[in-house]
Design goal:
- It contains 14 helices and six strands.
- The chain starts with a helix and ends with a strand.
- The chain has 407 residues and is mainly α.
- A three-stranded antiparallel beta sheet has the order 1-3-2.
- It folds into three domains: 80 residues, Arc Repressor Mutant, subunit A, CATH 1.10.10; 173 residues, Methane Monooxygenase Hydroxylase, Chain G, domain 1 (Up-down Bundle); 120 residues, no CATH class.
- Helix 6 packs antiparallel against helix 7, helix 6 runs parallel beside helix 9 and helix 9 packs antiparallel against helix 10.
């Protein structure tokens, strides 16, 4: 028997809580008894038996093992749901805040129902609270998937889109979706306060023997614990996806903006403008060191009248020793500084004063890594001046380093 698209769409719309729960259990099979319990807990408008028969008839579920009577989501249906997950769109912080406001109002209603002994109202409040918490979890999962997709697309569009356009796209996701998640992680923030209030009210209702459906209350407590874990996981995964690309595109967009600023200055004032060198926030480095005697002789050999080839040069005398340990030590020391030590008003001068015995290459590499590290905010300020670091010279504006306070 063929099922029309309209009929299937109407069934999915009317019974989406059942599909949501089955999707969460997509890696396991369930018995018919468990299926009926899932349907019964989802507040469907028709009988659980009818919904179960429709799930089988429309082939949304199939038998996993005929001997044990276990059922699972049909593979084509799973593939279709996975396709929809790939097309996910991030959920705005406004939507999440609206759900938190609704959950707060629901808590007040449940508190009133507990005081008045309103069992029917209390049951309705508990079911609504669980559905809202599940929606927040779904919002986080959808946002996480959407950000991963957006990052992948942005990386693949480097030939068709400039750095500035791609940075604006990623920065909008960073500002509109990642930072609001960070705010929800605050242990004194609205989400944690709301979850704590719900836990206390459920404990109070249990003491008064007022829990219309103890099973739903237990699920609410588990869902809130899962929400806390899911929130941290979502933030960590989203930041891991976005942070390297955000930092890279930020540097590229600054270069693009600086180049455009230079071109506008040349068009307006010509190449003789004295401020042209400061039109873009860039640093230039000049390496100064003693050249080995063998290196000088090799460089001048072609200007000499020699009868034979020049002698071999021992390059080991000019090879730069590895200084990765020094670099890590500098980075760890900066990260361990107390909050009162920031901002570091002049980073290069600070490096020269606190690490004057370090190798020049280690200082230069640590400076570059600190300036580009997304945990810090670097400000390049005029005028340009020279800094002596060991046997090297860095010509750069004064660099102020602030801590961004990301967890």
């Amino acid at each position: 028997m063929l099922i029309s698209l309209q009929e299937a769409a109407f069934f999915l719309h009317s019974n989406h809580p059942v599909i949501d729960e089955l999707w969460r259990r997509r890696d396991t099979s369930v018995s018919e008894t468990e299926l009926l319990a899932i349907i019964g807990a989802s507040q469907v408008k028709t009988s659980p038996g009818y919904v179960l028969s429709q799930l089988k008839e429309m082939r949304f579920i199939v038998e996993a093992d005929a001997l044990t009577g276990e059922w699972e989501l049909a593979l084509p249906f799973v593939r279709w749901l996975e396709h929809l997950q790939m097309m996910a769109r991030p959920v705005s912080s406004g939507v999440v805040q609206a759900r938190l406001a609704s959950l707060t109002h629901n808590l007040e209603s449940f508190t009133t129902a507990t005081t008045q002994g309103d069992w029917a109202g209390g049951r309705e409040n508990l079911r609504f609270a669980r559905e809202t918490i599940q929606q927040i979890n779904d919002d986080l999962a959808q946002t996480r998937t959407a950000i991963a997709t957006a990052v992948s697309e942005t990386k693949s569009e480097h030939r068709r889109q400039g750095a500035l356009e791609r940075f604006r796209r990623i920065n909008r996701l960073w500002q509109d979706f990642l930072l609001p998640i960070l705010e929800l992680l605050d242990p004194t923030g609205p989400l944690e306060v709301l979850c704590t209030r719900w836990e206390r009210q459920l404990a109070l209702a249990n003491e008064k023997a007022f829990l219309p459906e103890r099973r739903i209350a237990e699920r609410i407590e588990r869902d809130m614990q899962y929400l806390r874990v899911s929130l941290r996981q979502s933030f960590r995964e989203c930041r891991n996806e976005m942070e390297p690309l955000h930092a890279s595109l930020r540097r590229d967009s600054l270069l693009a903006e600086g180049a455009a600023r230079i071109l506008r200055s040349i068009e307006r004032d010509g190449i003789g403008d004295t401020n042209l060198a400061n039109a873009v926030r860039l640093s230039t480095f000049r390496f100064a060191s003693r050249i080995s005697e063998a290196g000088i002789e090799a460089s001048l050999a072609r200007f000499r009248d020699i009868a034979g080839p020049p002698r071999s040069i021992g390059f080991s005398v000019t090879r730069i020793p590895p200084e990765s340990g020094d670099v890590e030590a500098i980075l760890e020391e900066v990260l361990a500084l107390p909050g009162t030590a920031f901002p570091i008003e002049d980073l290069l001068r600070w490096l020269g004063q606190h690490h004057q015995r370090r190798n020049f290459h280690a200082l230069l590499q640590a400076f570059s890594l600190l300036v580009g590290d997304s945990r810090y905010v670097a400000h390049f300020l005029n005028p340009i001046s020279e800094y002596d670091l060991g046997y090297g010279v860095v010509r750069c504006g004064r660099v102020s380093l602030e801590f961004r306070h990301l967890p």
